[in-house]
Amino acid sequence: MSKRYDIAIVGSGPAGLSAALNAKIRNKEFIIFGNKNLTNKLVKAPKINNYLGFFGLSGENIKERFQEHLKVMDIDITEERINSIYAMGDYFALMANEKIFEAKTVILATGVEYTRPIKGEEEFLGKGVGYCATCDAPLYRGKTVVIIGHNKEAEAETNYVSEIAGKIYYVPMYKGSYDLNDNVTLIEDKPEEVIGDLKVKKLVLNNSEIETDAVFILKDSISPGQLVPGLKIEEDHIAVDRLMKTNIKGCFAAGDCVGKPYQYIKSAGEGNIASLSAVKYLDEISRK
């Protein structure tokens, strides 16, 4: 039986880190998923003057302060990409590439999804379109697969799938050198549309088309509506109340994913609230 955490936090930006900090202070068993190097968005800020007590610092400086705080509090980030989260009644199942994590509560701190879905992506989700190549690759043994990669990490998944699929294409959404197996066909073109009937049949690109049985889209993050089935979304953000509660019992959200303004101090404050709300919820269910 896998370990069941009190709180699972998805995201390692200011909201997720603040939530983890408060979960630690409240002595809860928690796990935080994200990047040990924290978020790319954080380090891009040239100068921050609206974060109380941290004036005149760059995003890189703030990131270093955050990392120092995590080290002092002995908080470790788990580098797993969560592909889907299912409410199972009294707990949540969080699906990673080849693992399943369980938690009594979830805090979504995924930031804003900047990668818009391509035409047909959402329509064929689960019908040939997926976000975890290593999870679903055995379904396409000997078949044709296209992987659209938004980061270097996607190359490793592509190489894994190339040992199973009959024919595999890799479409990178970034520039650079690519470390791919010899049997992977590199297509440097822009994906436009996924086409099919009951399931995926074809990927249309700007200058070409590929007949395929599956299209895996490996993004830095998955939009919350696709990540958590049944989650209420309003104007492209997760709907929450002032206690950061979503419409799903035991599921909370904080930071940019719940709406503007997209500012670090606002996200950190909401992460604090979400964590306190999760702790209160856990205390309530423990008394029942």
TrEMBL record:
<protein>
    <submittedName>
        <fullName>NAD(P)/FAD-dependent oxidoreductase</fullName>
    </submittedName>
</protein>
<dbReference type="InterPro" id="IPR050097">
    <property type="entry name" value="Ferredoxin-NADP_redctase_2"/>
</dbReference>
<keyword id="KW-0560">Oxidoreductase</keyword>
<feature type="domain" description="FAD/NAD(P)-binding">
    <location>
        <begin position="5"/>
        <end position="149"/>
    </location>
</feature>
<dbReference type="InterPro" id="IPR023753">
    <property type="entry name" value="FAD/NAD-binding_dom"/>
</dbReference>
<dbReference type="Pfam" id="PF07992">
    <property type="entry name" value="Pyr_redox_2"/>
</dbReference>
<dbReference type="InterPro" id="IPR036188">
    <property type="entry name" value="FAD/NAD-bd_sf"/>
</dbReference>
<keyword id="KW-0285">Flavoprotein</keyword>
